[in-house]
Amino acid sequence: MIALLFLAASLGAVQAPAADPQTAPALPVPRITPPPVVPTLPPAPAPSAPPQVTGGVPLPPQDWSALPVLRLRRAVAPSLDASTFVQREVLAGRCGGATRTPQGWVLNLDLALLAAADGRVRRVTPRAIDCPTVEQFAAGLLLGAARNNVDLRGAATDSWYRTTMVFAWKA
Predict the structure, then answer these.
(1) Which of 21, 31, 139, 32 is closest to 82 using CA atoms?
(2) Are residues 77 and 129 in the same domain?
(3) What's the rounded Cα separation, in Å, for the pair 126 and 132?
């Protein structure tokens, strides 16, 4: 009976009967406080601060059309193996972005590259085309081609550049 009264009193449903102080000890009535409200979203970053990720490397801007075109000091020869890999990914159904042309098939992939003022490549970001294997493959190709090969044209700070890789194969 005491346990039921204690439970009911703690929930505020009933008032405990007055007890004789000499015969029954007073039961403590716990106070139930609701948990604190915790925001579900992190605070928004300051609008003037560029987005940062681990290591302090900024993300590319949302609009790539304003980025300068990537220029390389030395030409890079295209590889048939690169298009063969992309062709296999398309044929396997893991990549659906290829377009049929009179000459065969073509898949275009835009990439952004962040180069440091000393010419080091700091980041390569492929545009998402719902084909992660080809996106990462192209990012690796660009990283290899751009290493010690970016024409900075006198850039004094880290700069983003844009380029497009075109993979083509016969039908």
Answers:
(1) 139
(2) yes
(3) 9
The pair of three-digit structure tokens given for residue 89, joined into one six-digit string:
């990914």
Domain count of the fold of the chain: 2
Look up tokens 């009976």; give the residue: 1
Spatial separation of the C-alpha atoms in residues 127 and 133, rounded to whole Å: 12
Name the region of 156 (left: φ>0; alpha: ψ -120 to 50; beta: rest). alpha
Amino acid (1-letter code) at residue 59:
L
pTM of the model: 0.67
Residue 38 lies in a domain: no
Model confidence over 141-153: pLDDT tens digits? 999 999 999 999 8
Position 72, amino acid: L
Q: Looking at residues 12-37, what average pLDDT do you find?
A: 62
